[in-house]
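Quarterly update from the structural biology core.
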Amino acid sequence: MPRRLAVPLAAVTGLAVLAAGAWLWFGRERPRPASFRGEPTSALYSVIDSRQADAAPLRLEEVFTSAGQTLGTLRRESAEELADCDDALWGASAAGCTQALRATYTGPSGTAGQFVIFNLPDGRAADALVDALAGDGFVRQAVPFDAAHSRAAARALGHYVTVSWAGASGPGADLVTSLIALDGLGRVVQSRVLAAT
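Predicted structure, tokenized:
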């Protein structure tokens, strides 16, 4: 009897490993959130509507501070600057983008999320990227969760675009709280506004 149980258990374990590998290889290429909200830039960010008015590049430690290691129930797993902004996207392009910084977070009960900030040439380019994210493209998923149980928000803030995306492995998770916590990382842009005034 124990031999019969060992074979199915090994098969189930093998299938789980294959499924995780398939998600990493294929599954995250084109997922979209179940709920999405996009916002254009506003007059509040007019002083940094152009990268010329805010030329210093973003630094990882400026966006993803030690204080932001934990956001509510989410804990930061990684933070990186991507070599090419389009590496963070599928089906859309970030024309004129010089930086894309991304962090991933995990939490209890299969919750997870990510935050990406794009450094674009001006507010028009930022608004165009937000429009593209609402249409045929989106950011690549960098942490596993079920996109069918996810919420995202994209904001153009002067010449920046922030994308916050929270999800879970199934229904019932409090994604609003996680999304608000991730979205709070965009406050880094307010310090750029103050520096430019």
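The beta strands are 35-39, 70-71, 74-81, 89-90, 99-106, 112-119, 138-139, 146-157, 160-168.
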